[in-house]
From TrEMBL:
Gene3D superfamilies: HUPs, Pantoate-beta-alanine ligase, C-terminal domain. This is Pantothenate synthetase. Homodimer. Keywords: ATP-binding, Cytoplasm, Ligase, Nucleotide-binding, Pantothenate biosynthesis. SUPFAM superfamilies: Nucleotidylyl transferase. It comes from Pseudidiomarina aquimaris. InterPro entries: Cyt_trans-like, Pantoate_ligase, Pantoate_ligase_C, Rossmann-like_a/b/a_fold. GO terms for biological process: pantothenate biosynthetic process. Catalyzes the condensation of pantoate with beta-alanine in an ATP-dependent reaction via a pantoyl-adenylate intermediate. The reaction proceeds by a bi uni uni bi ping pong mechanism.
Length: 281
């Protein structure tokens, strides 16, 4: 496996490639969820490149940019064992040579303003901009993203369509721990007692989906029950919302393809999760 620490090295390598290339963009501190993205990417390409870049542009002023875990050596070892072909781990100065106050960025309005976008202003502008830049740097034929970050996936899908980017975007279902907790680098911030509580998030989502899908319970009543459940267990809810899957706008009674999305704090750690389900016609 090759490690490219600069754009120049990556471009020199890229110019020689003739096969189909898949990109798996990450912020590193890799876990089994990331490695499953690599497995899926391998099914769609000859060569898999994983980017590892903690993108300052998508972090708010009071967020965890400085503390975000950076574990490049361990990440490279795990990726080599999993059969990735290359890692692109550029410096911030390589990605943003004129600093972060760039003149050009990508905004995907409306879908970026709700849910995580409402709590993290500017977040999806940072995500869309870096993903477009990574697409331009790596020039992949396909790119794989996790459904754990469902809103991010939809933002990237829209951006790719709207800008006619020649990249096939593939989504992968969320990889979970045995107790249901969605794997996430930020789980590492949880204390042992918080980690024990954390699976309540997924249990609550499953119960809510079941209430609406199987029992036909009214959306608002099901949502109120789910919010109560989380708060009783000590979570501070950022949002818990039922949305239609296509554009993440509020779900109406005649919408059937739904997703329930949650962001909640356990102590100082903000966890997100979501669950897709169908409402009976
Ligand atoms: N449990 C998971 N299952 C599937 N995909 C995942 C999972 N966790 C992360 N991903 C995907 O991996 C890619 C890189 O995500 P990232 O590096 O931010 O990891 P993360 O664990 O989500 O970190 P964070 O805790 O910062 O959100 C994204 O496409 C993300 O959706
Ligand atoms: C897609 C991404 C790598 C862009 O920085 C990041 O938002 C992430 O890790 O999900
Ligand atoms: N996994 C999404 C990237 C972020 O939280 O910044």
């Amino acid at each position: 496996m090759q490690l490219f620490k600069s754009l120049q090295e990556l471009r020199a390598w890229r110019a020689q490639q003739t096969g189909r290339i898949a990109l798996v963009p990450t912020m590193g501190n890799l876990h089994e969820g990331h490695l499953k993205l690599v497995d899926l990417a391998k099914q769609h390409a000859d060569v898999v490149i994983v980017s590892i870049f903690v993108n300052p542009m998508q972090f708010g002023a009071n967020e965890d940019l400085d503390n975000y875990p950076r574990t490049l050596d361990a990440d490279c070892q795990a990726l080599a064992e999993r059969g990735a072909h290359g890692v692109f781990a550029p410096q911030v100065s390589d990605v943003y040579p004129r600093g972060l106050a760039v003149q050009t960025y990508i905004e995907v309005p409306k879908i970026s303003e709700t849910l995580c976008g409402a709590s993290r202003p500017g977040h999806f502008r940072g995500v869309a901009t870096i993903v477009a830049k990574l697409f331009n740097m790596v020039q992949p034929h396909t790119a794989v993203f996790g459904e754990k970050d469902f809103q991010q996936l939809q933002v990237i899908r829209l951006m790719t369509q709207d800008l006619s980017l020649p990249v096939e975007v593939i989504g992968m279902p969320t990889e979970r721990a045995e107790d249901g907790l969605a794997l996430s680098s930020r789980n590492g911030y949880l204390s042992p007692s918080e980690r024990q509580l954390a699976p309540v998030i997924y249990k609550t989502l499953t119960a809510l989906a079941d209430a609406i899908h199987q029992q036909g319970i009214d959306d608002e009543i099901a949502l109120a029950g789910a919010r109560h459940e989380l708060e009783e267990h000590g979570f501070r809810i950022d949002y818990l919302e039922l949305r239609r899957r296509s554009d993440l706008q509020p779900a109406r009674g005649d919408d059937h393809e739904l997703v329930v999305l949650v962001a909640a704090f356990l102590g100082r750690t903000r966890l997100i999760d979501n669950l897709q389900f169908t409402r009976h016609a």
